[in-house]
Amino acid sequence: MEDSVRQRFLSFISPVIFLVIWEVLSRTNVLDMRFFPPPSAILVTMYHMIISGELWADLSVSLYRILGGFVLGTIPGLIIGLSMGLFKPVRLLLEPLVAATYPIPKLALMPLFMLILGLGDMQKIVTIATGTFFLVLINTVAGVINLDKIYLDVARNFGASRKDYYLTVALPGALPLIFTGLNLGMGMALLLIVAAEMNGANQGIGYLIWESYDIFDLNKMFVAFIMISLLGYIFNVILNEIERWIVPWKQ
Q1: Which Gene Ontology BP terms does the record give (predicted)?
Q2: Residues 131-145: pLDDT tens digits?
Q3: Percent of all residues in the chain with a pLDDT value above 70, rounded to a whole number
Q4: DSSP string, 56-122
């Protein structure tokens, strides 16, 4: 219990120290306040944005797109990844396609998605889903392939059905790497949402960053940066807690 509290304290104290140093350097003009406003000023701006509802309006839109894209990319990534890991013919069939398409920058696909889907939410959701899909897929395949073969042999000897292979052998055994893929996929989702909302959007965290750049409102820009950081931290904590609950043997 004490170790857990100590770990949480260490995780909390490092950003606090960073913010204090930033505040001091900015207030003493070591950092140019035009480009690096002090955290206290940024927090005041954030407070006003929360009170006015401006921040929540942008944040809620981004959350919808992030979660929609994450789910849309994760589900097929899991299913196809488990299939590729379990069945060698499927892996041999799909592996060249994955190897050929994975290196394509997902942002490079945005113009194509814009042409097909327009400038609405679906284009941004699909962009995020594409990035998430590959990371979940690759880690799921690796998790299944690295399973001890004895588990597959036991399942075969007991006459396991195809459903049993998926749900009672491959999925539980690959969970540690699947969660690695989920964490990476969520990180990718946060990267892509900012870029996606800078083009053809009128709301969202990415739009807020671009609008702040246009009017040189650095305080609002840093508020957007903070929100992306907070989302990343919150999603990471949630996924880690779920993993700790579902995969206790990894701890």
Answers
A1: transmembrane transport
A2: 999 999 999 999 888
A3: 86
A4: HHHHHHHHHHHHHHHHHHHHHHHHHHHHHHH-HHHHHHHHHHHHHHTTS-GGGGHHHHHHHHTTSHH
Residue 227, φ and ψ in degrees, nearest 5:
-65, -40
Question: Domain boundaries in the chain?
Answer: 1-34, 37-250
pLDDT tens digit string along 172-203? 777 888 999 999 999 999 999 998 888 877 88
* d(C-alpha 194, C-alpha 117), whole Å: 18
- The pair of structure tokens assigned to 239 is 């996924």
Collapsing DSSP to helix, strand or coil, 1 comes out as: coil
- Homologous superfamily of the 37-250 domain (CATH): MetI-like (1.10.3720.10)
Q: What is the mean pLDDT of residues 206-223?
A: 90
Residue by residue, DSSP assigns 198-240 as: TSS-SSSHHHHHHHHHHTT-HHHHHHHHHHHHHHHHHHHHHHH
The count of other CB atoms within 10 Å of the CB of residue 105 is 8
Taking the C-alpha atoms of residue 52 and residue 220, their distance in angstroms, rounded to an integer, is 13
CA 139 to chain centre: 14
CA angle 56, 62, 63 (to 5 degrees): 85
CA atoms of 222 and 220, how far apart (whole Å): 5
